[in-house]
Amino acid sequence: MTHSFRTAAAAFLMALTAVAAQAQVVAGLGRGTKQVVDGIIVKVDNQIVLRSDLEAIYAQQQQQAEGKPLPPNLRCEILQSLTLNKLLLAKAETDSVVVDDAQVNNELNRRMSYFIQQIGSEKKLEEYYNKPLRQLKEELRTQVHEQLVQQKMQDQISGKVTVTPREVRQFFSRIPKDSIPYYSTEVEVGQIIKLAKPDDKAEQATVAKLNELRARILAGESFEALAKEFSEDPGSAKEGGYLGFFKRRELVPEYEAAALRMEPGGLSPVVKSQFGYHLIQLIEKKGDSFSSRHILLKPATGNNNVSAAAAELAKLRVRILADSISFAKAAKDVSDDKQSGANGGLLANRRDGGSRLPLDQLDPAIFFTIDTMKVGHITPPLPYRTEDGKDAVRILWLKSNTAPHQANLKDDYQKIATAALNEKKNKALDAWFEKNRGSVYLEVDPEFTGCSVLSAENK
């Protein structure tokens, strides 16, 4: 198996969801694909690879190819990647590598939030798959757990691998001239965000509403039913407010402190956090973890509060333009988005961790704003809605605009360094696979013996 394919396959498998994969299989059958009976095609100790696992990914690759011919050996390559992942799981079981429920729940909630954002709403997601959100999460749970274990094993094998500047230069020098990648236009964009603060009346009304709901629960009404009706947390409302298990320090301090002060079944007073106001019910304590459900209400922000945030940013913009403070320091000191603020306000490229973003990866709202901007320009305050639905304003700064070009060490060091690091990590994984492939029981369906699964000749 080539290093490039393993990297692509790993990223693909991590992004793939069980529900999406099954949808692709169904779609393929609907187009006349011959249906095959599911069954085990590879065993690695107690781990198995099903034919449906292989065919689901193959169907997804077919769709992405958009009619272009696929590599003739693609099924073998997919099977090799699946088998290597199962080897990671088998060795994780032997080495007692575990991932707790809180991590799985966090990742499930993150993925659900991403899917909901991409498709437009929770309702649209449920309609698309014709399943309630709870069922979608449960169907994903095993896959997400396995992926987190695999990632933990990979981190143990190659997590400490680093590259030096010399190794980066050597890596780049080995790339054939006709294979050096060509990058489209890329930009660096900074932002400073200020949230609109709710007014006192709105906060008082929110607290009063939660106290009313608390009284109804104490009088015998169902917490879950009221959460489904009133909670403004889209990730948990449909599940009666249930958040699942979390370890200490994994939730905001105010929430955790209130939950852990109670005995199971207890109902908290109204609790304020950065997300709004909560009514919390503790379900269970287990070691240093606990499970709970909540009802979240967010105070409304009036136009006056949005205007106040905009006025604050307008004054800050004047200071930046007058060079009395740098954009980076202003973002770090003032921005309510701590992630970009810690990076001097610059938005991060999720693929390589750098600050340069291809235009086609930009949020449309940002793209159409900076499209006519000159480098160095800072916008006036613009209305903005955060991912969790809060009213805010922000200013955007176009730091740089790089024209399309062939990759080079001066302009693209971060990307090249990331590729060099991935190659070195893959070599560490190759060495680990070579060392451990003989330490497990491996059985391959005769139909796929020609794939030489886990054989060094295919790497």
UniProtKB/TrEMBL annotation:
<keyword id="KW-0732">Signal</keyword>
<protein>
    <submittedName>
        <fullName>Peptidylprolyl isomerase</fullName>
    </submittedName>
</protein>
<dbReference type="InterPro" id="IPR023058">
    <property type="entry name" value="PPIase_PpiC_CS"/>
</dbReference>
<dbReference type="GO" id="GO:0003755">
    <property type="term" value="F:peptidyl-prolyl cis-trans isomerase activity"/>
</dbReference>
<dbReference type="Pfam" id="PF13624">
    <property type="entry name" value="SurA_N_3"/>
</dbReference>
<dbReference type="InterPro" id="IPR027304">
    <property type="entry name" value="Trigger_fact/SurA_dom_sf"/>
</dbReference>
<dbReference type="InterPro" id="IPR050280">
    <property type="entry name" value="OMP_Chaperone_SurA"/>
</dbReference>
<dbReference type="Pfam" id="PF00639">
    <property type="entry name" value="Rotamase"/>
</dbReference>
<keyword id="KW-0413">Isomerase</keyword>
<dbReference type="InterPro" id="IPR046357">
    <property type="entry name" value="PPIase_dom_sf"/>
</dbReference>
<dbReference type="InterPro" id="IPR000297">
    <property type="entry name" value="PPIase_PpiC"/>
</dbReference>
